[in-house]
Design goal:
Blueprint lengths: L1 E10 L2 E11 L4 E5 L6 H9 L6 E6 L2 E2 L5 H7 E4 L11 H6 L14 H13 L15 H13 L5 E4 L8 H16 L3 E6 L2 H7 L2 E6 L2 E7 H4 L2 H8 L3 E2 L11 E2 L9
Parallel strand pairs: 3-8, 3-9, 6-7, 7-8
Antiparallel strand pairs: 1-2, 1-4, 4-5, 9-10, 11-12
Helix pairs in contact: 4-5, 5-6
Length: 261
């Protein structure tokens, strides 16, 4: 569905990463982990075509990304950027309808089908009861689900999310993670960036660890997200003493004598 082959990416005059390969397939969740400044957002923008590849290639459905017109890309891949807030008090339905832009002309108004698709997107995420509520009167998690619904209104086959749980409380993080798994269950490919290895371990099928623009490790999440790799990724000691039912719980070590110190 989305594939990067020997990708070099960055900004004009500045390369952020190189030699990167990955694949996102239908029904799969891929977690992208790495420290701040490691290139995660730059990589997402390159996979979307918002930044041109400096080398290698990004492919969408087997064709070079550059062979797709922008509206065609938008109809296949949805994007939820990080830290996006609305200045205006749009309702949830109005926000989601903005995702129909890829299917409309520059001056076209949403029609009956667009309204149906928007309502379906809200219903898929279980937030149709918020349809007429202003985004300013929602919790952080509810607003994030509205932004995901907006991406779904594009009727994409894949969704890329940049730190979808940033600044959300514990309960709202759970709302978003459940939504990501539900979308994969419907056959969408989902790639999300995160700083939380526990989210990756529980929600993703595969993981890619990115440090200074280079892949430190990639593969099945149970094999890749482990204490040794996290120590190398973040340059910090890690406590993986375990959680319920033997599942690992990864925590940064902050007390002497814990996690082998």
């Amino acid at each position: 569905m989305i594939e990067a082959v020997d990708l070099r990416f960055g900004y004009p005059g500045h390369t952020v990463g190189q030699g990167l390969s990955l694949a996102l397939r239908a029904g799969e969740v891929v977690a992208l982990l790495g420290p701040n400044g490691g290139g995660k957002t730059t990589l997402l923008k390159t996979l979307l075509g918002l930044l041109p590849a400096q080398g290698g290639e990004v492919r969408l459905d087997g064709r070079s990304l550059t062979a797709w017109a922008l509206p065609e890309r938008a109809r296949r891949v949805g994007y939820v950027p990080q830290g996006q807030a609305s200045t205006f008090g749009y309702s949830a339905r109005q926000m989601v309808l903005m995702g129909r832009t890829a299917h409309l002309g520059l001056i076209a108004r949403p029609g009956a089908r667009d309204q149906v698709v928007a309502d379906q997107a809200l219903r898929r995420l279980g937030i149709d009861h918020l349809a007429d509520r202003s985004v300013h009167r929602m919790s952080g998690g509810e607003r994030q689900l509205v932004l995901i619904a907006r991406a779904l209104a594009q009727e994409p086959r894949a969704v890329l999310l940049d730190e979808p749980t940033a600044s959300l409380d514990f309960g709202n993080q759970g709302l978003v993670m459940r939504a990501i798994r539900a979308l994969a269950g419907e056959g969408l490919g989902v790639l999300f960036t995160t700083h939380d290895p526990n989210q990756a371990r529980r929600c993703a099928d595969t993981a890619l660890l990115l440090r200074e623009g280079c892949v430190l490790a990639a593969g099945p999440v149970a094999q890749v997200v482990n204490a040794a790799n996290l120590r190398a990724l973040y340059g910090a000691d890690v406590d993986d003493s375990g959680g319920p039912r033997g599942l690992p719980v990864f925590l940064p070590v902050f007390q002497a004598g814990v996690g082998g110190q």
